[in-house]
């Protein structure tokens, strides 16, 4: 294929992805009445209390979800792989389940559960992290599973055990450092998913960023567009950051 | 330093219809290099892994020195294992890999560094301490794996086919390196291999296994000279011992029309169907007039110093292949018929049905 064709294709794809973003930027910086440039919409990201609260909630939710996912999934998957390979299919099935059930169906079931959650731990939007940990399982599972398959975890752990390491050390010092890229990938996917999740949050009446964005679109469209663009940029930055983190030389001499 | 004792140690994999190792009894002396050898699936790796604690022991006992370790977790057994694929930690430098066991034992940083550097010096790895395993050749990785074991100064080394991933030349060199290192360190070593040449060249004693059962435990030379059964006779030696079906006839073994002399012990006990074993180098070339077994030459392998002649005997019921070692200067050509004979002391007689050795 010729050089020109390749550049043309690249250009076409760039246009496809970038044009909507440029349009968002343009719209969010235009004063709708006068047609002049204005930073008002972007300023409202930090000034509008509803919006800042929603951003804060969503970021906290993302962090909580990542922590919950890592704490729940990593030890489970490592343990299953090393000690009970028979359970692999079962765990995989359980983790993929959220993918096969429509979000609406999940919400119908969850509304009952959340009556109790509400009663037991309160009505903070952060309780959504319980659902989100479940919702990110399919993607996080894939990412970590690939990383685990790429290393010979069984032999590595046997080597460590014969050299004097207990199970905890095996997992924290030997297995996890080697599947770190996969865990980071899982974390990133989780963040992206939490920042974009609308259905569950909206139907359970929690004001997360996507929910507020949709509301805002009706009252203050430029601010909503600014927030949308900001969240896309944030996710993109996160991706670049994580991939850089992954490539950083990990050698440490003691 | 310690002895290793297996007392009827059994491993039965869940769901298997028979045990992988039904019950092994083996005593390994202090500082001894013991090689477990056998075809794949013979239970040699399972035996080693029972010693290392990576395989559960279903019955029987295992001791290191006087200490029973049958159900001790691997980390408390004071062993170091070297794996076929080395199992180096990809995320750690060579120095960190080698120092891992010391770190586990909470040895102070300074002493750890000293011991790692000492091991690296012995193994010629000093220039590579900062590298990641990924950046090393196969031979170097193997040495790092050895280093990781040495640094621990364990009571027992467990080595599971550590040379199998190396190319032929490297393997021969590393073979002698490991044997020398073990002799210098004097650490009791259990070494598993499927390669009988490795077993013969490295082991103080060799344990030949088949289907989970020890066949013979002896010095390499005794295994070669006095194999206790047909399996050991066929397994030890390269090229293989010629094993020829015969019938017992009046103090001789009768192969077709040919009478092969046997030693007095065998002559007294043998009867019915027997198998006669002759090493390739035990044959002598004789002229047609002197009699002897005729061999139709099909292939000649010239090795310079000597040559291996592969041929078929014209005698009904003898094996397809007879291997004869001749001097490299005896010009034997493909298609010729040669005649060979041997002496009674070089003939191993086995009972065909039980496989037991009948010769002295």
Automatic annotation (TrEMBL), chain B:
CDD domains for the chain: ABC_MalK_N
Tree of life domain: Bacteria
Keyword Membrane listed: no
Domain ABC transporter: 4-236
GO molecular function: ATP binding
Pfam families in the cross-refs: ABC_tran (PF00005), OB_MalK (PF17912)
Entry annotated with the keyword Iron: no
Keywords per UniProt: ATP-binding, Nucleotide-binding, Transport
InterPro entries, alphabetized: AAA+_ATPase (IPR003593), ABC_transporter-like_ATP-bd (IPR003439), ABC_transporter-like_CS (IPR017871), ABC_transpr_MalK-like (IPR015855), ABC_transpr_MalK/UgpC-like (IPR047641), Mo/tungstate-bd_C_term_dom (IPR008995), NA-bd_OB-fold (IPR012340), OB_MalK-like (IPR040582)
PANTHER family: MALTODEXTRIN IMPORT ATP-BINDING PROTEIN MSMX (PTHR43875), OSMOPROTECTIVE COMPOUNDS UPTAKE ATP-BINDING PROTEIN GGTA (PTHR43875:SF1)
Protein name from the UniProt record: Sn-glycerol-3-phosphate ABC transporter ATP-binding protein UgpC
Gene that this sequence comes from: ugpC
């Amino acid at each position: 294929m010729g050089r020109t064709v390749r550049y043309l294709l690249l250009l076409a794809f760039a246009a496809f992805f970038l044009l909507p973003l440029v349009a968002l930027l343009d719209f969010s910086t235009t004063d709708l009445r006068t047609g002049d440039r204005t930073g008002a919409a972007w300023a409202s990201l930090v000034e509008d209390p509803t919006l800042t609260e929603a951003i804060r909630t969503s970021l906290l939710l993302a962090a909580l979800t990542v922590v919950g996912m890592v704490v729940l999934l990593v030890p489970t998957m490592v343990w299953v792989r090393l000690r009970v390979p028979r359970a692999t299919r079962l765990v995989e099935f359980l983790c993929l389940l959220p993918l096969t059930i429509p979000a609406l169906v999940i919400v119908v079931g969850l509304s009952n559960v959340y009556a109790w959650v509400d009663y037991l731990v309160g009505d903070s939007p952060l309780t959504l992290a319980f659902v989100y940990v479940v919702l990110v399982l399919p993607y996080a599972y894939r990412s970590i599973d690939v990383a685990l398959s790429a290393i010979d975890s069984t032999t590595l752990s046997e080597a460590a055990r014969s050299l004097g390491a207990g199970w905890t050390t095996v997992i924290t010092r030997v297995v996890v450092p080697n599947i770190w890229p996969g865990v980071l990938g899982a974390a990133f996917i989780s963040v992206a998913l939490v920042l974009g999740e609308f259905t569950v949050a909206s139907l359970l009446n929690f004001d997360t960023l996507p929910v507020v964005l949709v509301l805002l679109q009706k009252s203050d469209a430029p601010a909503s567009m600014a927030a949308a663009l900001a969240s896309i940029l944030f996710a993109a930055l996160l991706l670049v950051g994580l991939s850089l983190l992954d490539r950083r030389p990990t050698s440490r001499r003691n | 330093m310690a002895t290793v004792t297996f007392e009827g140690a059994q491993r039965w994999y869940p769901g298997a219809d028979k045990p992988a190792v039904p019950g092994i009894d083996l005593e390994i002396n202090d500082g001894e290099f013991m090689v477990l050898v056998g075809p794949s699936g013979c239970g040699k790796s399972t035996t080693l892994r029972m010693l290392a604690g990576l395989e559960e022991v279903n019955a029987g006992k295992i001791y290191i020195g006087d200490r029973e370790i049958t159900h001790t977790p691997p980390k408390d057994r004071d062993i170091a294992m070297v794996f076929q694929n080395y199992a180096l930690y990809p995320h750690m430098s060579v120095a960190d890999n080698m120092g891992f066991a010391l770190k586990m034992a909470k040895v102070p940083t300074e002493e750890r560094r000293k011991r790692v550097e000492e091991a690296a010096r012995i193994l010629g790895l000093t220039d590579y301490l900062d590298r990641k395993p990924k950046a090393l050749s196969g031979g170097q990785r193997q040495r790092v794996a050895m280093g990781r074991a040495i640094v621990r100064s364990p009571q027992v080394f467990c080595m599971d086919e550590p040379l199998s991933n190396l190319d032929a030349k490297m393997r021969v060199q590393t073979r002698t390196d490991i044997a020398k290192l073990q002799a210098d360190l004097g650490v009791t070593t259990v070494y598993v291999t499927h390669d009988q040449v490795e077993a013969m060249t490295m082991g103080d004693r060799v344990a030949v296994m088949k289907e989970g059962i020890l066949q013979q435990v002896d010095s390499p030379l005794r295994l070669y000279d006095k194999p206790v059964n047909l399996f050991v006779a066929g397994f030890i030696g390269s090229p293989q011992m010629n094993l020829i079906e015969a019938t017992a006839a009046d103090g001789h073994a009768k192969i077709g029309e040919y009478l092969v002399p046997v030693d007095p012990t065998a002559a007294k006990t043998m009867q019915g169907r027997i198998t006669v074993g002759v090493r390739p180098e035990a044959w002598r070339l004789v002229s047609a007039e002197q009699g002897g077994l005729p061999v139709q030459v099909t292939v000649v392998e010239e090795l310079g110093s000597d040559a291996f002649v592969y041929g078929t005997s014209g005698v009904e019921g003898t094996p397809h292949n007879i291997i004869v070692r001749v001097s490299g200067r005896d010009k034997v050509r493909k298609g010729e018929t040669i005649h060979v004979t041997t002496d009674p002391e070089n003939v191993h007689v086995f009972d065909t049905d039980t496989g037991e050795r009948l010769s002295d």
